[in-house]
Amino acid sequence: MSNPKIKIIVDGFGEMCAELYPDVAPITVENFMGLVRSNFFDGLIFHRVIPGFMIQGGGFDTSFEQKEAKSIKGEFRANGVKNDLKHEKGVLSMARTSAPNSASSQFFIMHARSPHLDGHYAAFGKVYEGLEVIDKIATVPTTTRMYYYENCPRKDVVIKTIEEIKE
After folding, report:
1. How many distinct structural domains can be found in the chain?
2. Theoretical Cys-Cys bridge with 75: which of 51, 79, 122, 155, CB 3.0 to 4.6 Å?
3. To the nearest 10°, the Cα dihedral for 111, 113, 116, 120?
4. Euclidean distance between CA atoms 93 and 108, whole angstroms
5. Residue pLDDT, tens place only, 43-61
6. CATH code of the domain containing 111
7. pTM score of the predicted model
8. 3-state helix, strand, coil in the chain (%, to 5)
């Protein structure tokens, strides 16, 4: 059985195709694919953009209202799970709070290698086509929103949809 593949379509920026790795993070991939199949991500934004680090999305709409999803077990070494996928450009990983099992729908895509994340966040896939879209998003001007959300794009970077690629 082949790994699931997805296409992330970002309004005005283009498309990224990624392969997900259930052998590395089975709970994370199952949760993410469930959200994809239910169109959870449609219209949500990349709300945090840090060039030379990562772009993060999957939790807020254009009004900056949070869209809730259930939390899952964090599949990373510091949480007792073997996950050797390195946080390098194009890798998808789950965002979370300081609580190890707080990941839900927010994910980030690496813009550059960040070894300090290895073993501490649940990496679960990698972009194999459309890396230039990450570069384009990473260059958008950012600001602070609502006094405490930093590195937010001044103009919304909207996820039109994330769809499963059927082969």
Report:
1. 1
2. 122
3. 70
4. 5
5. 999 999 999 999 999 999 9
6. 2.40.100.10
7. 0.97
8. 15, 35, 50
Task: Please report which residue ranges of 8-109 form alpha helices under DSSP H.
Answer: 26-37
Comparing CA positions, the residue from 117, 139, 124 lying closest to residue 55 is 139
Structure-block tokens of residue 16: 């990224």
The dihedral sign for the CA sequence 29, 34, 37, 41: negative
3-state SS class at 19:
strand
- The total of other beta-carbon atoms located within 10 Å of residue 98's CB is 5
The SS3 of residue 135 is: helix
Give how far Cα 79 sits from Cα of 56, 73, 101, Å: 22, 9, 8
Q: Counting Cβ atoms within 10 Å, is residue 142 exposed (0-12), middle (13-18) or buried (19+)?
A: middle
What's the token pair of residue 22? 């259930």
pLDDT for 54: 98
Counting Cα atoms < 13 Å in the Cβ hemisphere of 134 gives 26
Residues 14-53 have pLDDT tens digits of 999 999 999 999 999 999 999 999 999 999 999 999 999 9
Distance CA 8, CA 5 (A): 10
Domain that holds residue 83: 5-165
